[in-house]
Amino acid sequence: MRNPNVESLLLQLLGSEKTTLLFRTVNMPSILDDWEVGTVTRAELAQAMNMALFEDLLDRSENGRTYTTEVVAKGGSVYFDHGAFRTVRWAECGSLPSGEAAFTRILRPLGFRPNGRYPLDKLGMTGRAYAQDDAPDEIAQFFVSELHPERFSEKFQQAVTRVLKTSEDPLTPLAASQLWELERDGSLPIDQAHALLPVIVGAFSRHHDIPSEEDYEVLLSESAEMAWIATEGNAFNHATDRVEDVFQVSDEEKAKGRPMKPEVESSRSGRVFQTAYRADTVEREFHTKDGGKVRRNVPGSFYEFITRKRMFDQHARQWVTDLRFDAGNAQGIFKMTANATK
Description:
Layout: H1 4-14, H2 16-25, E1 39-41, H3 42-60, H4 62-73, E2 80-88, H5 101-107, E3 112-120, E4 125-132, E5 141-147, H6 154-164, H7 173-185, E6 187-189, H8 190-202, H9 213-222, H10 224-232, E7 236-242, H11 246-255, E8 265-266, E9 272-276, E10 281-287, E11 293-299, E12 302-308, E13 310-313, E14 318-321, H12 327-338
Parallel strand pairs: 2-5, 7-12
Antiparallel strand pairs: 1-6, 2-7, 3-4, 4-5, 8-9, 9-12, 10-11, 13-14
Helix pairs in contact: 1-2, 1-3, 1-8, 3-4, 3-8, 6-9, 7-8, 9-10
């Protein structure tokens, strides 16, 4: 069943062909079986945004696009578990708010709440998860990581400042007021939702100027993650399909010759298992010392797989899906961009 509000939002943003394919590809939360014509709830807007961001990830990841095409061709679909993106907690971010604050102002009105903090100390980062409160098990979560430049060298910090100081805030005053109303009321008139959706989807991209090749090399020497942010910004680093048996998927994809992570990551709880393709290689432009420009291959985004086991919730007295993440798993998965062609 297609929720007509979500469908209307996506048709205007993406067009008929992509919208039809998305409805065939991505799971639809059961809470969206009910709707009110002309009024878009925060859950509907969250789902529409997530589906648009999933499409954007597939547009940038050939491996992910090939996988999902094969799944749909066989009559299957994708259970969109979570999307991940990277931020930088740094004062010199132009007009863009520092770190994850630039995005919690979007996620919070859409009903997303904190769902765990994960120190990523080996990477000089902190990860935080956000789950959608109306349908936490069915609307894809967000895994938001913040990089901490102060944990790196002074030369590195100076390069971060040069790269990020040109950042521009994608949220317009109108969008900010619409998000405020959405947080207050839990819904928006559909015409306002149509106006807001492209703005919040567009927030998940790069908002600073083309970096210099020299700064990129400085960043890359200390943090593959910050170098990735320099070229890709706040775009989805990866999107994740929740599958029944990630070990089986891993073996099947390796047998096809796909560039899979060698080992499946297992959480300390023994209930969350993750693997991924290596990042797709993309071509990006850089400024050179002589004032020219050069293009080179760098790591782009990638596609991930996760299996979540259930646990018994003592408070609710029922079995629930373990929606938590694991710092060790995350740091292992993040290597998928560090190992790609540079």
